[in-house]
Write a structure and sequence with these properties.
This protein is flat. It is of the alpha+beta class. The strands form four sheets. The protein has a seven-stranded mixed β-sheet with strand order 7-8-9-10-11-13-12. The N and C termini lie far apart (62 Å). The longest helix is centred in the N-terminal third of the chain and has 37 residues. InterPro entries: Acyl_CoA_acyltransferase, Arg_succ_lyase_C, Argininosuccinate_lyase, ASAL_AGS_AcTrfase, Fumarase/histidase_N, Fumarate_lyase_CS, Fumarate_lyase_fam, Fumarate_lyase_N. Keywords: Acyltransferase, Amino-acid biosynthesis, Arginine biosynthesis, Cytoplasm, Lyase, Multifunctional enzyme, Transferase. One of its GO terms (molecular function) is argininosuccinate lyase activity.
Length: 645
């Protein structure tokens, strides 16, 4: 059944119907179409198109259909409906008769498909954020395991300077972190509702489009109906985000294919992600990495195809836009599958530490250290560079590393070279000198891992960015961890509060205040402090909140941490606190305190007990004791931003 037959004398040909129909692709948006239809039914009820009974019947039928689709989405493919919108309407008419025909009043398939696709993108984007965070965590785990492992670093695929394997891992953590930022930016921009834009000129019914948008979980409604129905920027942005991330994954895969080769022998892939040869029984092929590398081109193709489709389309909607979904669905599925496969690869990777160390000791990777040594003897770097080049030539002729040349041999190139030179030419010395932020020393990698977790402000201010070292790798590992916690919180739908959240926050806080768990907050107080609140959402509903109260430069208190019972086992409370800790880091705060009756909860998040009497009087005065609790049970705890656990 088509929704547009009245204008035509003849039926479309079977060949055209097959060419035109999109149901085999857009059936994946069935739930989104039903959710949008429920919201639209409420909207046209509010303007008098539907009465109360009609709204109840339509909503019940749509909810029943939604449950059926969630249980068996493939049932849709048995239909000969043109698209998912037709299928939903046909099912609704079968359930409610002529009443089902009223639902499309004031609505077009143009704004309907635009809304469905944005709802699908929002939901899928959340899954992709989780996959990216999990991938970062897998690389963090690998960096932790191999933070002391020496690895030859390369430029031009030639051995250059030694780094640590942990430092290599953290390079990809940084790439994936940028991927998270791009994805979040794209999801923010697409979070506007086109519903109510009609075919191109808006609807003739006085729909409150912002209320409709909020009902669907969008932050607002679109501002121009022509743009709303013909905008596919969100598709292009998501494809671009996927393409850049797949480029990063492909580089990761290529590195490991090279490291895994017989010529490299630095790593061995797990059997779980490898295959063999049908002819050569000795072969163990890194197929997972090769497929990740190969699938990158497939995702790039979807982006190129969509850009080409959109480049010459006049306003407003054109049927060309039906080509948006197949490439998008395939690209995002591929991206997520490759991220999940990369996690398996990282989890099972075995590093041959003796082989990586031996390789790092070859190729005169310590030549730069000899040049730096000469600079310390007041020889200009350019001259030192030339001298070391001659030394390397001599070592190649002798067939030995630099450190095996005798003092007499070295002094033929410069009399400034003395016996202390050898302590500068060891692998340990080469690595440990890379103490700057971003360097490859073991301690710096450790610190980096913690500070991405806790945002170590002191290290960020004191270090100079840029170089690779074993101490710097430790710094990097510490830095990564807080950032991952904050990203995980964002992926769990924790966000900054808006004015539209005020009433819900007031309700959440005062329900707990009535139980004596926290202090009450007035509505006016919440309104004036809304910029310091964050909220947690579950399926579009606000289920938790928390706030950061700033006392003075460097000091703040986390207050009003509340999570509804339905969300308490899903990590929303922890996510709220982690989000605020990252917010505190961005605000350049140094000390975060809590006054709590449940210290064990905050201990898990990196807080430590402190003497309550050490707090300033105004802090104690602000914290009135609960009439339902023993004041002696309330303890003070602190979190030093940048240190965490």
């Amino acid at each position: 059944m088509a929704l547009w037959g009245g204008r035509f004398k003849e039926k479309a040909s079977v060949q055209f119907k097959k060419f035109n129909d999109s149901l085999p692709v857009d059936y994946r948006m069935a739930v989104q179409d039903i959710v949008g239809s429920i919201a639209w039914a409420q909207a046209i009820h509010e303007v008098g198109v539907l009465n109360d009974d009609e709204l109840t019947r339509l909503t019940a039928a749509l909810n029943e259909l939604k449950v059926s689709v969630e249980e068996n989405p493939k049932q849709i493919l048995l239909s000969d409906a043109e698209d998912i919108h037709s299928w939903v309407e046909i099912q609704l008419i079968e359930k409610t008769g002529d009443l089902g025909k009223k639902l499309h009043t004031g609505r077009s398939r143009n704004d309907q498909v635009a809304t469905d696709l944005k709802l699908w993108c929002k939901e899928t984007g959340g899954d992709l954020l989780f996959a990216l965070v999990n991938l970062q965590q897998a690389m963090m785990n690998l960096a932790e395991r191999e933070k002391d492992t020496v690895l030859p670093g390369y430029t031009h695929l030639q051995r250059a300077q030694p780094v640590t394997f942990g430092h290599w891992c953290l390079a990809y953590v940084e790439m994936f972190n940028r991927d998270i930022g791009r994805l979040k930016d794209a999801l923010y921009r697409l979070d506007v509702s086109p519903l109510g834009s009609g075919a191109l000129a808006g609807t003739a019914y006085p729909i409150d489009r912002n209320a409709l948008a909020n009902r669907l979980g969008f932050r607002t409604a679109t501002m121009n109906s022509l743009d709303a129905v013909s905008d596919r920027d969100h598709v292009i942005e998501l494809l671009a985000s996927a393409s850049i991330s797949m480029m990063h994954l492909s580089r990761f895969a290529e590195d490991l294919v090279f490291y895994n080769s017989g010529e490299g022998g630095f790593v061995e892939m797990s059997d779980l992600v490898s295959s063999g040869s049908s002819l050569m029984p000795q072969k163990k092929n890194p197929d997972a990495c090769e497929l990740i590398r190969g699938k990158a081109g497939r995702v790039f193709g979807s982006l190129t195809g969509m850009l080409t489709t959109m480049k010459a389309l006049a306003l407003a909607y054109n049927k060309d836009m039906q080509e948006d979904k197949e490439g998008l669905f395939d690209a995002l599925d591929t991206w997520q599958e490759c991220m999940e496969m990369a996690v398996l690869v990282a989890d099972g990777l075995k590093v041959n530490r003796s082989r990586t160390l031996a390789a790092a000791q070859q190729g005169y990777a310590n030549a730069t250290e000899l040049a730096d040594y000469l600079v310390s003897k007041n020889i200009p770097f350019r001259e030192a560079h030339h001298i070391v080049g001659e030394v390397v030539l001599a070592a190649i002729a002798e067939g030995c590393p630099l450190e095996d040349l005798t003092i007499a041999q070295l002094q033929t190139f410069s009399t400034q070279i003395e016996a202390d030179v050898y302590q500068h030419l060891s692998i340990e010395s080469t690595l440990d000198k890379r103490e700057v932020l971003g360097g490859t020393s073991r301690s710096q990698v450790e610190k980096a891992m913690a500070n991405i977790q806790s945002g170590n402000e002191e290290i960020l201010n004191e270090q100079v960015a840029g170089a690779p070292g074993i101490q710097q790798t430790e710094i990097a590992l510490k830095q990564v961890k807080q950032r991952l916690n904050a990203q995980r919180a964002a992926a769990m739908s924790v966000r900054r509060a808006r004015m539209s959240d005020v009433n819900k926050i007031h309700q959440l806080v005062n329900v707990q205040a009535d139980k004596g768990e926290i202090l009450p907050r007035s509505l006016d107080n919440i309104i004036h402090d809304i910029q310091n609140f964050v909220v947690a959402e579950l399926e579009g509903d606000v289920v938790g909140c928390a706030s950061l109260y700033i006392y003075q430069t460097g000091l703040a208190e986390i207050r009003s941490v509340v999570v509804e019972d339905v969300a308490k086992s899903q990590g929303q409370g922890e996510a709220l606190v982690q989000y605020l800790l990252e917010f505190a880091y961005q605000m350049e705060l140094k000390q975060i305190i809590v006054l709590t009756y449940i210290p064990a909860y905050f201990t898990k998040l990196g807080f430590h007990l402190i003497d309550k009497n050490s707090l300033a009087e105004n802090i104690i005065e602000d914290s009135e004791p609960s009439p339902h609790k023993d004041p002696a049970d309330e303890v003070a705890m602190e979190y030093i931003v940048g240190q965490g656990k």
